[in-house]
Each structure stands twice: as structure tokens, then as C-alpha cells.
């Protein structure tokens, strides 16, 4: 970014720089000052500004590496497993609504259980709910596609959840886990009581379709460079970095200014540790996502085939909650809200947050956790069992939170 900023200065001064549409007003106001500035002094000022930012970034990285925080949460009981996948039960003693949470295949599942203070699943369990988390683990076969996983392991994980609940369960999916959960609900509607979709992409051409197609070509090309059939963590990080090249500089610059003893600093380290604790991606999964989703936009076009059937959310007659964070750069609002348009009985929630901050940010307990808990209680109540009064009291306390 520093080099591109310096390279863009002559174009900006001459008025030939192509500004982002959202910056046109600011660019027009800046143009006379750029034209009047001394070129050498302006270049030196920009270089010094970037040098300061990069120095702060380096200090932030050093502080991050030296920070004492380490995640020490124990895993809850495993109630089902297959291959690398495990189903974790966060409320084995609870009689509340049973909800199967499906995370993305790209990052570790514990983003939903990040730390003692930033755990959506432990929060729900504390209210008497019974959250089940499908931890995908590390993929073991590069030939298994997204569709294969949905029609195979995900269906069987749902069967296990239904067995524990004694009937249909609520299905919740985060990021591409929500896209997968939509397909699962379509394949097994009789086992799903309601569907909660947290920043789940569906219309991949809703915003900047040309960029999506270019990204699809680049991503698919990377899959052919993987000698073992898996897309590496470093390759995935490179793809995410392209979405916001300045992110690394901004976040570590900010961390350098934090009090290392503060909860804010510990939260930063917890999230950064998770982001760096990635897993490889099966080549078949990567190709399906890049080619069929980002390239051809098959989900929104009704042409995404899973288990031999084209997934059609408009045919799902069940309560749905579509959460589309207002500041999401990874899954733009229109992409996620396309599911709210397609699903016949969908409600929407648009918290003022980014893609990950929606789940673990400082405002998440108010803007997501509370309304989600209330919605799950309303639509998962029929799965309740009546054996434990203590759990019923917890659920009565949770009810006013919506």
C-alpha cells in the first residue's frame, strides 16, 4: 500500500487517477491542493507518513507476540464424530432449544467459542439453550467437495443432533456454514425447525460481479498450484488480504497503542490467534466455491446442485433469521440479504458490525447474542423437554432479552 500510494501521487496531481466512487466528493475537494503542492515535498510527506505507520505496525506485531494471553478453554463433550469432524455439546445438562451450529470450512470453528468472555455458544448455554457445534477439523480428503460434505457428514451430524433432541432442531450457520446450512435444510426440511443464517453469502454477484469473477479465476488457478490437492493456509491468507490490503497495517498500528493489560488487548490477541490458526482447504471445496459460487453465482441462480437436487430456498417453508452485518466486507449485505428475499418466512437483523466483529466484538452481546437467543427460544421451543425445572427457570430469564 505504501508503494502504491507513492506511485499514485503523480496521477492524483494530474487529475487522471481513477478514484473509488465513494471517494469522488473528497477527491474533488482535494484536487486543487494536490495540484498546488510541491511534488518533492508532497512525496516526502507521504513517505514519512507511511514510515510512521509501518513502524507502529512493527511495534504492534512485537507486542502481539509478547502478549501473555493464551486460549485455555476446554472442549465440551463430543457427542458424534466422523473422520475429522466432531459434534460438540455445549449444554448437555440443558433442556433448552437444541441448535446445530455450522461454521465455515475456511477457519476454525471456535470463532463461536473464542474466549471465556467472547463465546456465543457458552452464552447461549448459560441461558439454558443446548448449542451443538460442528467442528469440521482438518480436511482429510482433497477430493471431497462442499456438496459432498453437505450430503454426507453434515446430514449425519444433523441426524445425531435430532437424535439428541428427540425431534427437529434449529439449524444455524455462520459465513459459508450458513450457505451450507441452507442446502441442508432444503435436503432435510422435516428435521429442521428453523434456520438462522449469520452473514451467509448467497448472491455472489450482488456487489461488484466483475470482481467476483476475477477472484474466482485467481482462486481456481491457485488450486492447481497445490501439489497435495489442498489449498494452504498461506494461500488462503493471501486471498483474504486482497480483500483489504491495508488491514494488517491498521490493526497492528492500533494494537501498538493499546494498554497490554487491558481486556481490549486480550480480546485482540484472542481474535488474532484464531485468525492465524487456519486450516488447509480441500481442492474440491475451493474449486466449487470459486467456480460455482463466485464465478457462476449458481446459488442465487437456482443452479447449485447438492445431493442431486438444485437448492431452492424459496421452497423452504420454515421460520428463518437472516443476519447481515452492516459493515461486512467479506459478505456484503446484498449478498446475505438475497436469502431473506428468497426464504418465504425470513426475518432480518442488520447489526452495526463487521463480519467477525458481529460474533465476537464488544457490542456482540447486545447486537447479536441477545436477539439471537430470543429468536431461538421462540422458534426452538417445541424441542424443549420438561424434565429439569432449573433449565426452565433459566429459559424464563432469557425470554425478555429480545
Spatial gap, N to C terminus = 43 Å
Strand content: 5-15%
CATH architecture level-2 label of the domain at 78-203 and 309-401? 3-Layer(aba) Sandwich
- Could you name the CATH homologous superfamily of the domain at 78-203 and 309-401? Alpha/Beta hydrolase fold, catalytic domain
Which strand order spans the largest sheet, edge to edge or round the barrel? Answer: 1-2-4-3-5-6-11-12
Under CATH, the topology of the domain at 78-203 and 309-401 can be stated as Rossmann fold
Going by helix content, strand content and strand pairing, the class is alpha/beta
Mean pLDDT: 89
Cα gyration radius (Å) = 23 Å
Count the E strands: 12
Low-confidence stretches: 383-402
The portion of residues assigned to helices is 40-55%
Tell me about the largest β-sheet: 8 strands, mixed
Q: Number of helical runs?
A: 15
Which CATH first-tier class of the domain at 78-203 and 309-401 would you pick? Answer: Alpha Beta
From the spread of the alpha carbons, the general shape counts as globular
- Series of secondary-structure elements, N-terminal to C-terminal: HHHEEEHEHEHEHEHHHEHEEEHEHHH
Characterization of this structure:
Among the domains are: 1-37, no CATH class; 78-203 and 309-401, 3-Layer(aba) Sandwich (Rossmann fold). 49% of the residues lie in helices and 12% in strands. It contains 15 helices and twelve strands. The chain has an eight-stranded mixed beta sheet, sandwiched between helices. A two-stranded antiparallel sheet has the order 7-8. The protein has a two-stranded antiparallel sheet with strand order 9-10. The chain is globular, with a radius of gyration of 23 Å. The chain starts with a helix and ends with a helix.
